[in-house]
Amino acid sequence: MRLVVVGAAGRMGQMLVKTIAATEGAVLSAALERPGSAALGRDAGALAGIDALGVPVTDDPLAALLNADGVIDFSAPAVTVEIAALAAQARIVHVVGTTGMSAEDIGKLEAAARHAVIVRSGNMSLGVNLLAGLVQKVAGTLGIDWDIEILEMHHRMKVDAPSGTALLLGEAAAKGRDIALTEHSVRSRDGHTGARKAGDIGFATLRGGTVVGDHSVIFAGAGERIELIHRAEDRGIFARGAVQAALWGRGRNPGLYSMADVLGI
What we know:
By secondary structure, the protein is α/β, with parallel strands linked by helices. It is built from 10 helices and 12 strands. The radius of gyration is 19 Å and the shape is elongated.
C-alpha cells in the first residue's frame, strides 16, 4: 500500500516514516511538509534516521495523493481539512490523528467521507481504545452519584487542550451514560465555582517536560474511587496504530470510521 505522510519532518512524522518502512505491505510513496520547510528536498528516510528511501520531502500534496493509496495525517486542523478534500478527490484512505479540530472541521471531514475512507481518532493506540471501551462500560454501570473526572498530561510543546485522547475518553463516558458530552463537559475551574453538579464530566490538563501522554479516568463515589489509567511511553504505539488503520481501510466503502472499527472493539 502506497502511503503518504503529512508533516514528515516532525516527531510524529518521522516515527510514521520509520514504521511504514518496517511494515510488510506498506511503502512510503511521498512525504509532505509545509512550504518553506528546511526539510524540503531531503530524503524522508534519512531525515527519520533510517536508510534513504528515495523519497524526497515535498510541499505538493496534490501530486503526492494522486499517486498514493492512502495518507496518514497528524498535522493541524486547517491542513487536515485540506488533505481530506484532496483524499476525497483521489478516492484514497485518509487516517487522521490530528487533534484540536472544531465542529466545523469535523463537518468537513464528514463531507469528505462520502467519497473517501477516513479513519479518525484522538488516539491510535490499542491500549487507549481498549480503555475507552472500559470507560464506556463503567460509566454505563455506575449511577450519576459517581463523579467522572479525566486528567491528562503531555509534553510542554503540545498546543491543544484537553488532548484528543481526553476528549475521546470523555465521549466514551458520555456514551456510557447516554448523554451529550457538550452539555455536561467542565473544562476549567477557577475561583468560587460552587458545588460540583451531578452528571458533569470534568477535565484537567497538565503540561510539562517530554511526557508522551498520560491519561486517567477517575470515577469518584461515596467512600470509594475507581481509576482507569493509560500511560504512553513511546510514540511508536500511535504510528503502528495509524499504519494498521490505513491497511485496514484499503478497499472499504467510503465513510468516517474510528479506531474502534479498525480494532473490532
